[in-house]
Amino acid sequence: MYAIELALETEIGLGLTGFGIFFSFLGIVFFFDKGLLAMGNILFVSGVSLTIGLKSTMQFFMKRSNFKGTISFGTGFFILVIGWPILGMILEAYGFIVLFSGFWPTLAVFLQKIPILGWLFQQPFVRSLFDRYRGRRVPV
């Protein structure tokens, strides 16, 4: 029973993360609508929290090596909410890249296993882009 509840939390978290990405995309498409962008950020962070757990989320964002990304992402969200969506999204994008730079190799392996898109991501030029960052963090 407990494993089912944990799987349900993970599924809900992945759904919230997906909706967060979708709302952020809509916010950008609709000329940086700050309401959609703020909703996307809230859904994304809450989805990540449900997916990996609250304790793991706090450890991830409060890790000393992730402070620069956490502060940039939080500041970007605050600037977005007060009314400057383009500057806020630039800061958030920088923070997102710094925070999740360690996940790029994992993402590359996943994308290479997708039936149709996998062929594109297995090409030497695209593969070399991901191989450059394998095993180390991007210098910032």
From TrEMBL:
Which GO biological process categories is it annotated with? endoplasmic reticulum to Golgi vesicle-mediated transport; retrograde transport, endosome to Golgi
**Localization terms from the record:** Golgi apparatus membrane
Keywords attached to this entry: Golgi apparatus, Membrane, Transmembrane, Transmembrane helix
TM ranges: 12-32, 38-57, 69-87, 93-111
Q: Can you supply one Gene Ontology CC term for this chain's record?
A: cytosol
From which residue to which does the signal peptide run? none
The protein's superkingdom reads Eukaryota
What is the membrane topology here?
Multi-pass membrane protein
Q: Which family does the record claim for this protein?
A: Belongs to the GOT1 family.
Q: What is this protein called?
A: Vesicle transport protein GOT1-like
State the species of origin. Senna tora
